[in-house]
Amino acid sequence: MADLLWRRATTPTGRPGALAGYRQLLAAQVRSQLQYRASFAMDLVGNLLLTLMDVAAVVVLFRVTPVLGGFTLPEVLLISGLANLSFSLCDLAVGNIDTMRQYIRTGRFDAVLTRPLSALLQLVCGDLALRRLGRVTQAVVVLVIALNLAHVRWTPARAVLLVVAPSFGAVLFGSVFVAGSTVSFWFIESGEFSNAFTYGGRDFTAYPITVYAGWFRKAFAYGLGFAFVAYYPALAILDKPDPLGGPRLLSWSSPVVALAAAGVAAFIWRIGIRHYRSTGS
Amino acid sequence: MGTAWALAGAGFRRYSTYRQATVAGAFTNTVFGFLRCYVILAVAATAGGMAAGYRGSQLVTYVWIGQGLLAVVQIWGWTDLADRIRTGDVQSDLLRPLHPVASYLATDLGRAGHAALTRFVVPTAVGALCFDMYAPHTLLSYPAFLASTLVAVVVSFGVRYLVNLTAFWLLDIRGVITLWQLGAGVLSGLYFPLAFLPGWAQGVLWLGTPFPAAFQAPIDILVERGSVGHRSLLLFDQLCWAALLIGACMLVQRRAERKLVVQGG
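YS: structure for the whole thing
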């Protein structure tokens, strides 16, 4: 450790060099995706529609019922919007960690470890999906529409919360992504396992948690912290009392929850990478 | 026919070796089962216990059977063929004595058989343990469900095969897969029963797209929604789609073979 600190202090030029390395990885990705134009165009259109479909699914449910878990359509849309924005920001930044299981299964992870860049950052930059930018934009559009429909009475605090909530929501999702993909250090074929918490978490946060019940709600809302991504911030923005009787302070606790989750994820990642044994194929 | 059986057996055995993946997949389907079940029950609760012709317990069965069926019909991505086209390995498929569509279909049916015994059973059992599930009232619904599921696998295979064949022209089929997944999720009845939609949209989806035939048809047959005549029509719709898609696969396969340039080597 002391050795590492020493090197960092004495070679300040080391850092720009590393940055250039990441930049080249990203640029190569962009070029390669633009090679197959027809496929890229379809991918773009598909992703444009993807978020719209999520919203459409919520609207369809409200064709059958006037309220869902005590919330009206604009209120649920606001929750979905916050959830989608958090998730798409996270997906843009670290969603590619999903491919880690292929790296481990094929043995390509060995190559990642031999390069003088952080393994986690390399995986993240391995496939920057431009299309994911589109999803962030759509989530913002949905959020703006929902805010208009819900007739929010703006205060400075609520405006700040509107920025804080998705940012730290993204951190929480990112932690789940990193922690979840670490599982493949132990169980190589288990990639789908983490989907239950990453994509499952996204779908969970898209609805008010009053919809769920029992241990399932406790585990996802509080155990994994998903209630703090969209549900509690939305309550404060809507100025709506919590049907579950929680204090207003909970609406502001997403930074604490997200940073704690990030700490846990970093810890799990370290254990995992130390445990890594090449498949050797 | 013997070859086809052998291929189906191989498909079954191939997937039975991926034990971790099977457990992980069943776990994920089960978690999503809880999620979807709670949401749909919340809808039914405020809609007076009945939503679009489904009672609460029917919706519970709808969700959990659906979570089990997902893996059986393999509604999400399958790129085995596209990968072989990209690498050029597909040429050895063309040398085999069995037609490629038939041989891939046989393998896929074997895979579906394995999924039916593993991935289908877990969510269904968990759902039955944790929620009040609707059981079919007439015995005939069980064999009808089995038949309908079999046809659903063929329909889903047909679309997946066509999607993969586009690799002959595009090489990179990421975009086509995205579009297929988009349809497979929302238009098949996975996110919500299609009966939640206005009548005209249901008509367009059932008659104009193969998605409901690959997913919702067997579920509606098992939860006995609508009259017996209505359910027979669903099965008929499925059969039409299966025939149409397998025909299309044969046709496109022939065009693709003329286009084939072996990339590998």
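YS: worth flagging: Residues 228-259 of chain B form the longest helix (32 residues).
IM: good catch. Also DSSP finds 14 helices and two strands in chain B.
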